[in-house]
Specification:
The protein has no helices and 12 strands. The protein is mainly beta and 174 residues long. The strands form 2 sheets. It has a 9-stranded antiparallel β-sheet, with no helix packed on it. The protein has a 3-stranded antiparallel β-sheet with strand order 2-5-6, with no helix packed on it. The model has no long low-confidence stretch (mean pLDDT 91).
Amino acid sequence: ERSDRLQIKATVRDLMPSSLAAAAPPLALLKMLEMPIAGDATLEVTREGEIDKADIALEVASGRIVHPDLTQPFNITAGLFRLAFDGKERRWDLQPSPVKWADGNMLFTGSLKDTATENSPPVWRFDLNGKNGVIEAAEFNVPPVALDTFTATGAIVPRRGLVDISEVHIAGGG
C-alpha cells in the first residue's frame, strides 16, 4: 500500500437508491432507481481528499427504473454490475455486466467520463454497449429473438437531474 493514500472499503445491503435522491442535488437522479441494491466498494483517496480510484461491485434485485420520459417503468429482474473509477481521468468503466428483465437479458459494458470544465458541475458523457442479448415474448408464442448489439450514447448532468440519450442503435434477429 502507498503511504500517501487512504483505502476505504464499504459494504451496503438492501439499499434503495431512490431513498437518497432528496439528500443532495447531485443525487437527484437516484429517484429513478426503485430497486434494492447490495454492493462492495473499495476507494483509494489522496491526502487532499480526492478519489484516485475505486472498484465497485453491485447486485441489483428486482425493481424498476422510473422516468418521466418513459411511458411505463422499465422492470429489472436482476443485474450484476462491476465498475472501476480512474480519478485522474475522471472516468468510470463498466466491466461486462449481465442484466435480466422480464422479457430478456443482455451483457453490458461502457464508460462514463466527466467532460465539464474546471469549476463547473460535472457533465458525464456516456457510452453503453450491449451484446449477447435476448428479447422474449412468450405471451405471443414466438421464439426468443437474439439481440446482437445495443449501443447508446449521451450525457448525464446530475445537478440538473438530466439524462440525455443522444443516440441508440439496436441490431438483432440473427
